[in-house]
Amino acid sequence: MKKISLILAILLLSLTFAGCSKQQASKVSAEVEIADQSISAGKVIIDKASIPEKGWVAVHELGKEVFSGYEPGKVLGWAAIEGANTNVEVAIGPTASKRIMVVVHSDKGQIGVFEFPGADAEVYIENDKRIMTIFNVAK
């Protein structure tokens, strides 16, 4: 009888933790879009950027090329976002890059302070797809 009770207790605990894991692994609905543009004025305009919680849209130089695309490189600038946003202006530092990456980041560390690398990691959705896009710098 004790053996059956122990097995039932383990089974109930397993189901409880399985339910928690499923909730924690929920998918994030986020997106970012930007058109090719000049950056001579020291800023870029991001057409669309969304995340259902407090977050950031960050402009990066292209980093190392990897099997799945590119890693984010040096951070050029960022802006806070929450919910759906259009025409987000981001002031950026100087760069000679001809292609720039825009990435959505969470705001998980100190709220309101961009901490990357660190707590404010890139946002991923299903199949480990990073919410990002690359645009060409127009002359």
Write a short abstract of this structure.
With 139 residues, this protein is α+β, with helices and mostly antiparallel strands. The protein is globular, with a radius of gyration of 20 Å.
Q: Mind summarizing the main beta sheet?
A: 5 strands, antiparallel
Provide mean pLDDT, rounded: 81
The residue fraction in helices comes out at 10-25%
Number of strands: 7
Q: What is the N-to-C succession of helices and strands? A: HEEEEEEE
| Cα radius of gyration in angstroms | 20 Å
SSE topology:
Elements lengths: L1 H23 L6 E3 L9 E24 L2 E23 L7 E8 L17 E2 L3 E2 L1 E5 L3
Antiparallel strand pairs: 1-2, 2-3, 2-4, 4-7, 5-6
Describe the overall structure.
This protein has 139 residues and is an alpha+beta fold. It has a single domain, classed as Immunoglobulin-like, CATH 2.60.40. It has one helix and seven strands. Strand 5 and strand 6 form a beta hairpin. The chain is globular.
Keywords:
Immunoglobulin-like, 139 residues, single chain, 48% strand, two-stranded antiparallel ribbon, five-stranded antiparallel β-sheet
